[in-house]
Amino acid sequence: MTPKISFKNVRKTFDIAGKTAFTALEGLNLDIEDGEFITVVGPSGCGKSTAMNIAAGLTMPTSGQVLVDNAPVKGPGPERGVIFQQYALFPWLTVRENVEFGLQIAGKPKDERRRIADHFIELVGLSDFANSLPKTLSGGMKQRCAIARAYAVNPKILLMDEPFGALDALTRVQLQDQLLAMWSKERRTVMFITHDVDEAVYLASRVVVMAARPGRLHKIVNVDLPYPRTEDMRLSAEFSELRNEVWRSVYHPAAAA
Ligand SMILES: Nc1ncnc2c1ncn2[C@@H]1O[C@H](COP(=O)(O)OP(=O)(O)OP(=O)(O)O)[C@@H](O)[C@H]1O
Which chain positions lie within coiled-coil regions (predicted)? Predict the structure, then answer.
């Protein structure tokens, strides 16, 4: 089967003051299957965001390429929704208007926009706040709105860069469950960056561990826990073993190689 996303020997260097100074990513090869949920962890500066930005079409690789459905990524596209840690909502628009925004750009008629937006607003549990402005929402609610907005335009791929990084622990766990519930219903391919090893294991069917200097793929840990994931699973011996394996690989890559 053709992978949904395929990193082919992707290398990215950054020029500093006119000199090629820094290799952010070296020889990244990675296939992500259609409908798969993968998480990416690794120490700060190992190139996680760089890899995602290349897949999003926001940055071009120095060499190599990313294929989506076998076609090279040449820029951003509607089939790839991107969610960052900063919610990036339009402050002057209500929750519903934020969620409808991309649909309006796509030329969807008003009735359809409303129907689709309300569906996703309900899925993320924000129905009572559809007419609220972002400034009146908590961080978790803003991120729920950003997720609804990304889902509304029906991207086949979601690229999420530490989307829950700024949230408190409880909200974070709730949003993980909500995201997984949406993922099981709407099956998109998800690439999700996180610093949180528990989160990485809880969400993914595979955890991609990266290493730094130069940024590269270090190891892939398969998470053979069934979906739906439950809070009880977090306490299980299997979960704890997987978490320890990922933790060791991230923080002691040489020892765990
Ligand atoms: N535009 C840029 N110019 C110069 N260097 C850059 C640029 N963007 C990223 N880098 C460097 O490339 C390396 C990888 O950065 P990247 O943001 O991809 O890492 P990361 O793994 O996502 O880090 P973090 O976990 O801290 O967010 C870093 O050392 C960073 O300083």
Answer: none
Domain boundaries, the chain: 1-75+158-257, 80-154
Strand, coil or helix: 206: strand
Closest atom of ligand 1 to CA, residue 47:
18
Q: What is the pLDDT of residues 81-130, one digit of tens each?
A: 888 877 689 999 999 999 999 888 888 999 999 999 999 899 888 999 99
3-state secondary structure of 195: coil
Q: Whose CA is nearest to atom 31 of ligand 1?
A: 45
Which residue has its alpha carbon closest to ligand 1 atom 17?
Answer: 49
User: What are the pLDDT digits (tens) for 131-143?
Assistant: 999 999 988 889 8
What span, in angstroms and rounded, lies between the C-alpha atoms of 172 and 170? 5
| Six-digit token string for 181 | 């519930």
Query: What is the Cα–Cα distance from 114 to 129, expressed in whole angstroms?
Result: 14
Kindly state if the Cβ of 49 falls inside 6 Å of ligand 1. yes
CA of 27 to the centre of ligand 1 (A): 16
CATH dotted code for 1-75+158-257: 3.40.50.300
